[in-house]
Specification:
This protein is of the alpha+beta class. 38% of the residues lie in helices and 14% in strands.
């Protein structure tokens, strides 16, 4: 069995309005993680898989902003999400 096969499924949802620091809006494991993913898919929210990043983000409280140490990683994910949706970042 691969080491990742016995790892619990996790999901973290972030909210980003283009102005403020992204915040954690949902976290969960197992069935809750599956529900978070299903809701995201229903609403056309892009999904990004990175188990190590989810492990870190899952330690944050709901409504908490992402820490500065994760800005670059999250900015790259937001840029990717914009790109696959054909969107451009909001003008400053």
């Amino acid at each position: 069995m691969k080491p990742d096969q016995d790892k619990k499924p996790q999901a973290v949802a972030l909210y980003y309005d283009g102005k403020s620091t992204p915040t954690v809006t949902a976290t969960g494991e197992y069935d809750i993680a599956e529900q978070i993913i299903a809701i995201a898919r229903e609403h056309g929210v892009p999904l990004y898989e990175n188990p190590q990043l989810v492990d870190v983000l899952a330690q944050l409280e709901l409504g908490e902003s992402i820490p500065e140490a994760l800005y670059l990683a999250i900015a790259e994910i937001i840029a990717f999400a914009y790109y696959i949706q054909g969107k451009k970042p909001p003008a400053q």
